[in-house]
Amino acid sequence: MELFYLNDYVPWPQTEDMRISIEYWDQISDIPKIKDKSYPVHRHLYYELALIQSGFCKHTYKNSTISLIPGDCFLIPADEYHAYQFEDNLHIYNCQFYTDSLKDDLKKILKELSFINLVDQSSKFLALNEDLFSEESGASKFTNPHSAFVNQQGIIHLNQAQQFYMESILNQMKTEQTDKRCGFHNVMQNYLEILFYELYRIKINQYNATEKLSSKKKQMITKTLEYIDNNIRGTIDFNLIAESYDLSPNYFRTIFREITGISPTLYLNRTRILNALELLRTTSLPIVDIAAEVGIYDANYFTRLFKKQLGYSPKYFKNID
Hints:
Layout: E1 20-25, E2 38-42, E3 47-54, E4 57-61, E5 64-68, E6 72-76, E7 82-86, E8 91-97, H1 104-113, H2 115-121, H3 123-128, H4 130-133, E9 156-157, H5 160-179, H6 184-211, H7 215-230, H8 238-244, H9 249-260, H10 264-282, H11 287-293, H12 299-310, H13 314-318
Antiparallel strand pairs: 1-8, 2-7, 3-6, 3-8, 4-5, 4-7, 6-9
């Protein structure tokens, strides 16, 4: 995407006495400083936590641009440059906060959740996936942000139950911010602490599950991800893949989920839908042909799956200029 820069830091969205801010954007017009659906490359003096509720956007951070889908959650520390490219149907929570009033143990958790520490923790796994993350790799025509336990931007992908729980806390924080009842500053701070303890638990559980697996099993999943990327148009049978590794289908699915955080079928569906979305945005192919390009030969099923993943039908994206 074409990026442009703000001249200075993004200002704090609340009054100076507020150290935590919650925004919920369900229309592009609600988002400040938008230009051609882009939020320019920027930074701020405070932390930012974002959670994609529904829809789709692209995020540029740490020299990479990836697609974000519902359930994706990430943390941007102060003084870090990043940018967004939005779609009209995006619904996103954005929580900004200063760290000066946070407890010491919460500050430690923030460091653990930061991009650098996430990459350090996952270095063993990333070493096994060097080809997968290499810019020179021809493994896939499209960039898929969900092809490893920890990706380049430190995205934490939440399952549906985790996402609903996080949204409920963010909604409570937004209510406190709006109503400004007695003690609302302290209540918002308590909710923020709950948010980060929950994220920390999720990330530690994912990391611990991955660390228990052998290098051989991690390499197996890496090869499976590459196979999916290279054969997206074909029929992919996870039972046959499991059999090729002398594993039962259930055990193979367990290993896959422990490493990627999602099931093989969900990973495959998301890969197909993200690839289809790219084709909708960049080609004039009919929807039925786009479905076939990503290995789905039933147009009605493709439409249902697409809407389930992104909240809107493929026709909606086809009609966007």
